[in-house]
Amino acid sequence: MENEKLLKQLVNSDPVRGAGTTRRNVLKGMGAGAVALGAGMGLPRMAHAERNLAMLTWDGYVDPRVLDGFTDQYDTQIDYELHTSDPDSVNKLRAGQTAIWDIINLNNPWAREMMWPENLIVELDRGRFEPYFDKMLPMFKAPYKWAMSLDEQHLLGVCQRVDTFDFV
After folding, report:
1. Would 131 be classed as within a structural domain?
2. Residue 166 domain-assigned (yes or no)
3. Is 162 domain-assigned?
4. Does a structural domain hold residue 79?
5. Residue 55, C-beta contacts closer than 8 angstroms, at least 6 positions apart
6. CA-based, 20 to 30 A from 85: which of 14, 36, 103, 115?
7. Which CATH number characterizes residue 73's domain?
């Protein structure tokens, strides 16, 4: 019951719909990973990026109200390509595009069952995300099944969105 109440609060504070959550908080969560899976270089580590970040993602994750705070804070830009499907995006990685993308946002079964076993993605530094685990909803705390490899030894992503989408 408590989890349902927390989920309802999150849904009602969707930043894309402008219902109250600050962009800063959303970006902290997104920066913490929200299922952003690292490929190639992973997440930025510098206050000023040497190049634009490249993100392969779903529509809805590139809204300026979500990205602007991050790009302003790190003095960078994000180049992105929108998915047409999970299989299409996984096939891009299989075809050699692993070095192109810094951040990949796919549905988690693909990461656990195909991309990780095929070495198409790299694991995230778990220590870097440990401070955020205590702030997560109980049902998403580490080791959250869908953020981990099948053997639960490797952090492949983080929960970053639990609300509904405008277009569903």
Report:
1. yes
2. no
3. no
4. yes
5. 36, 61, 62, 78, 79, 80, 81, 101, 102, 103, 104, 105
6. 14
7. 3.40.190
